[in-house]
User: What shape does this take?
Amino acid sequence: MKSALSDRDSTRVCFELIHQAAFGDVALGRPLWATDEAIHALDAATVNEFHANFVQPERSVLVASGIDDHDGLVAAVKDQFVWPEKPAKALDYGTDLGYVGGVKLLHNDKAPDSVTKFQEKNLTHMGLCFKGIPLRHPDYFAYTVIQTLLGGGTSFSSGGPGKGMHTKLFREAIMQQGWLHGVECISAWYENAGLIGLYGQAEHQYSKPLLNLMMYQAATIPARITEKDVEMAKNQLMSQLVLLAEARDIALDECSKLLLQHDSVVLPDDILRGAEKITLGDIQRVCKDFLATPPTLVVYGNTDGVPTAEQVTTIVQGLHKRHCA
Assistant: This one.
């Protein structure tokens, strides 16, 4: 059932394809969703082995908020957790996280059954990404400002606070192109790798204009931003972080994920201090850095006429040189 549902979620399919194209068939490029064959092959012995190898105290994270007696909580946790011997079987996670880039296409011009209320069905989904950075990289704060600056969203729900209506992608793309269902800046952070790029959707007949728009928007970022844009993005990011800090449940969830994935925590206050120091020069520098890497392009929908990886690279670099020289 899970496998069937994954095929009906176009956004999830597109993000799976992005990682496969960006990192190849190793580590981060491996699918998160199991195939039907893999699901049917599961048995009790396999599940028990997985549980024994992975569900252990040394692989667990406990986060709490509003605790008066911290030492007492730590003592109680140590008392309740029984630390078993580590399994003799070595666990192979795959260590090659190298970014490769490329083009991956999955043609589908039939509208899937929607699993999300109000989700547009007959759309081509497209991702254009570049090599990013790990979470603990010195330029992490510049990347967070870039993502806030570009922003984006969908044409369906454009009103109300926090919808990103003043971001670059909303003002310069969504509000200018009636055929565009949505486009936004996306990112992914891992211990030894990262991604940054754009994710967009449009009806199948507009797949080529969608790709042209996304390549232009990505390639010309350094030429289209000003000091005012950077300051606006920093202010917006700070207001979002203040709200995030007040939501204890969200903050705890973020802390647990960061500890599990990165063995460290970046608190809202850390991002506030780091983002405050970011300048227009920093933004332009990191944009030029990731635009120099091989692009990753994935299309789930109408794949007719999609250029090759070499052609995408030539177009993006040509646009960048023409507008940002």
User: Anything to note?
Assistant: The two ends are 51 Å apart (CA to CA). The beta strands are 102-107, 123-131, 152-154, 180-189, 194-203, 296-301. DSSP finds 14 helices and six strands in the chain. The first helix runs from residue 2 to 8.
